[in-house]
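User: Second chain of the day. Same drill as before.
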Amino acid sequence: MVNCEAGTGKVCITPPIGLLMAGYSERNQLARGVHDDLYAKALVLNDGTTKLAVIATDLIGLDRELVAKIRQLAEERTGIKKANITVTASHTHSGPEVTRGYELFIPVEEKPIEGLSKKDYLDHLRDMVARWIAGAVYIANCNLEEAKIGVGKGEVYAVGLNRRDPKEPMDPEVGVVRVDNTNGDPIAILMNFTCHPTVLDYSNYLYSADYPGYAMRTVETALGKGVKAMFMNGACGNISTRFARREQTFREAERLGTILGGEVVRVASEIKTAEKAKLGVASKVVELPAKSFPTIEEAKRALEEEKEKYNNLKKKGASHGELRVAYTSMEGAEIVLRWVEAGISKLKKIETEMQAISIDDSVLVAEPGELFVEIALDIKKNSKLRNTFVVGYANDTIGYVPTKKAYEEGLYETFSTLLSPEAGKTIQDTALKLIEAVVSEH
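Assistant: Same format as last time:
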């Protein structure tokens, strides 16, 4: 086994001001400015046999078509196989809308770029974003040097809780991959943590990476100028800052990000890196069953029922958390109606991709959805590897993947998902098969 090589790259992907922002249907205006820049960061690893790239972006998500373009561009520039490139999104709700389909549901009438239709402007933006992100991989590949790698994990309880019910399961685990140069100085820190970046709400019209941005800056400040800190979200379909945050401000995003970043620094400081590491990559195209949608009349009726529930809670003086749960359920019912009206309800299946990237006895399981945390906890429990980190919003954006129990309970995520209750089990089973596949490579 030869010594491992690693290289990092970083590109600013902050788009022009005056574009559609992603994440909140309540927004009815365009982006007004930049609070903190958005970035794409890439880490290229090579063990002499397998060469791969992991990319972390400050975006809400990337659909399969956009990921394919990024991979194609990156392969052309670096020679890294498309199948060995992983593209992830932090899921910040304060970035631009770059995914297909979701722009349909944002009620903004202004043309984001003068003279371009909504579709034309999105095509232009997506092309620009793809080239920026592929550029980060190119830089990382140009910077390859002998390196040492180590993996560790910690815990944080004060940032995210189960947003449907804070007493329900959450995942406090903080996964950390440390990559050093031959002098022992860190050049990259990958962090994996499970929580929606929704400290900032719909009233914010400034681009921001939310709490993950502050977490990454905390790590980079503490560990040195040359390090690239990369945030990869987990199975946060039902995990957010809703019941953990004190307010929805940049100050609060900084507080929570600093808590997470501090734990990453602690774990990274204790990791022992080694010159030799065995890498592995396995991927699989998966067909997930689409759910059955109601008729237009049924969808309209469901929306009225959710509106009534929300208004009744408001009259009773319910807590902010209770109101937020009810409001998002109302949003979900509205999304269902729009999907039915747009004909999306005719879908029978959704084709997507899952991937596993192993580093010795640790693995990153890359899945494309907003997976409910219980499913990820089961994957970790049944994995044969020492460290199993589930990475969400990876290589595609397919929306929520709730548990069967959640479908019985209803609420926002089960309203707005395109998937049937069986999809979670398919993803879990596929994840474990991919873990087996990378284990056999060792």
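The chain has two domains: 5-280+353-400, 291-346.

User: Great, on to the next one.
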